[in-house]
Design goal:
Among the domains are: 105 residues; 94 residues. It is 78% helix and 0% strand. The chain has 16 helices and no strands.
Length: 328
């Protein structure tokens, strides 16, 4: 039932995005841009709760298509650029849904398109968003050096140099890439830059909804990932606990991911019983929701490490028997 509700809600959002105005104007102005952009906020709210799914991806693409259809009717060059910006963000949202669902080839083509549109818009925030997603996609494709390069590209955007909030996100993403390559010193240095930059940032209500996930809690969650990848499992566990204390409740998917990461830290410390109990909490958090591909992959990593590090533990086998159908 909840899955059907999700599809209905997403389809309804898409319909709201693509529905023509009762009286189509001869020119497109600022009010039309605002209307089109509001659909992005609705889609990001769905993503925060449910995660990336094909229905969300389709809705985002519909929004991009409708926006681009209006470019030729723009009242001015400034409105044209704003429409390109909205289209870039819809396309980046579609790419993100594909990344979260681990539809990797489709995600790459979406990101390529989003980066082109962000360039047409002259929108550095959209460019940073795309490079941030490129780094995540490169990691999923085991292209770890490319993930570092994407992190540096995010750092080089005008908005990352100008606004320490965005700079912090770019440094944090780069830290994860360094950690995956096993460069402990570079990872910890980048985490330090990220935390310093975030401490200097100020609240800005005008920031787009897609970046609402980032803040101290998310940086703690990313710190946990980086620390675990370089072998600092105890520091990683502490950072995971810290993140889970402050991740906003409406970010259900992110809370479930952080919980899975905590379980992974615990199993790396051979705390098998606690790790399996923690990992089981993920299914409670996602109850009624389809688990996104990225989360399923993480749970698969957890189970692989669990049976590798504790092959004779009965609790490991029991966890697999109980939850295999839910995550596989």
């Amino acid at each position: 039932m909840r899955r059907r509700n999700f599809l209905s809600a997403t389809t309804g959002t898409a319909a709201a995005v693509v529905m023509p105005l009762d009286s189509r104007p001869t020119v497109i102005g600022t009010s039309d841009v605002i209307r089109l952009r509001s659909g992005l906020d609705a889609l990001m709210a769905l993503d925060a709760s449910w995660g990336g799914h094909e229905a969300l991806e389709r809705a985002a693409l519909a929004g991009a298509d409708e926006t681009l259809d209006k470019v030729r009717l723009a009242a001015s060059q400034r409105v044209r650029q704003r429409l390109f910006s909205v289209a870039a963000n819809y396309t980046a949202t579609a790419a993100w849904a594909a990344i979260d669902g681990r539809q990797l080839n489709r995600a790459r083509s979406r990101l390529d398109r989003a980066l082109y549109l962000a360039g047409m818009a002259k929108d550095p925030v959209a460019e940073l968003r795309v490079w941030n997603s490129y780094a995540m996609l490169a990691h999923q494709r085991d292209q770890f050096t490319e993930a570092v390069d994407a992190g540096y590209a995010a750092q080089a955007t005008a908005v990352a140099r100008r606004d320490s909030f965005y700079g912090s996100l770019a440094h944090a993403r780069t830290a994860l890439a360094h950690a995956t390559l096993g460069d402990r010193q570079a990872a910890i240095r980048s985490l330090g830059y990220a935390r310093e930059a975030l401490g200097k940032s100020t609240h800005d209500a005008s920031r787009p909804s897609w970046v609402g996930f980032y803040g101290t809690a998310e940086l703690d969650a990313m710190t946990a990932i980086a620390r675990d990848r370089v072998g600092d499992s105890d520091e990683a566990e502490a950072a995971s606990h810290k993140a889970l204390r402050s991740i906003p409740k409406h970010f259900t998917r992110n809370r479930a991911l952080a919980t899975a990461r905590l379980a992974l830290c615990q199993v790396h410390q051979r705390d098998v019983e606690q790790a399996t109990a923690t990992a089981s909490e993920v299914f409670g958090l996602m109850s009624g929701h389809s688990i996104p591909g990225r989360m399923r992959s993480l749970l698969g990593d957890f189970y692989r490490d669990l049976i590798t590090l504790a092959p004779d533990a009965s609790v490991a086998q029991q966890w697999g028997d109980r939850h295999r159908a839910q995550w596989s």
